[in-house]
Amino acid sequence: MSGQMLVDGSGNESHLRIRAALSDGAVLRFVDQRTFGSWAVDPLVEVSGTLVPESVAHIARDPLDPLFDRDAVVRRMKAKDTEIKRVLLDQTVISGVGNIYADEALWRSQVHGRRRASALTKPALGRLIDDATDVMRQALDQGGTSFDSLYVNVNGQSGYFSRSLDAYGRDGDPCRRCGTIMRRESFMNRGSHFCPKCQPQPRR
Ligand SMILES: [Zn+2]
């Protein structure tokens, strides 16, 4: 190893937590200013023909993954006798879809989040996956969705997708498709935002 001073992007090494010397001579440094991160030694296990760390093997692929199997996910969703929004947020079925993107995808598909996944047709479930994928892709293009000034890119900018939201946070505002006043209801300790006309609620 060289005795060279190792620095992070901010020009100091005070946040350097771990320095590992690899067998090929490279040095791997773990710089973690906010101490949210951690390292673990994890065996690799095979999932769908690829090796992944065992501790994340239960997490399903996200729709932007080249190996994402849309038809298989549609079948898994169709088999779930629970609310469709709960299924969208279930990382063992599909990953990458958080509360905001679930609300956006459901609005685009004109499906209420409390409808049963098993009661939706396979084409409708496929369209919902496609809508979620489009939302994620558009959000990525705009730098993500950030409401917190702490979460910024390397240029200090927040994500701009929050300005493009059609459902999330728009309760009290007119639906951009039909003009009906949007509503919010509690769901899984979060908020669900929907148009009561475009996304009719299922009977309780
Ligand atoms: Zn509407």
Low-confidence residue ranges: 1-10
Count of individual beta strands:
6
CA-based shape: globular
Q: In DSSP terms, counting alpha (H) and pi (I) runs of 4 or more, how many helices? A: 4
> Measured on Cα atoms, how large is the radius of gyration?
21 Å
Q: Give the CA-CA distance, first to last residue.
A: 66 Å
Order of helices and strands: EEEEHHHHEE
Structure, explained:
With 204 residues, this protein is of the alpha+beta class. It is 22% helix and 14% strand. It contains four helices and six strands. A two-stranded antiparallel ribbon has the order 1-2. Strands 3-4 form a two-stranded antiparallel ribbon. A hairpin with a 2-residue loop joins β3 and β4. α1 packs across α4 and α3 packs across α4. The longest helix has 20 residues. The chain binds zinc ion.
Comma- or semicolon-separated keywords:
204 residues; alpha+beta; two-stranded antiparallel sheet; 4 helices; disordered N terminus; binds zinc ion
Summarize this, please?
The chain is 22% helix and 14% strand. With 204 residues, it is of the alpha+beta class. Mean pLDDT is 87; it is low at 1-10.
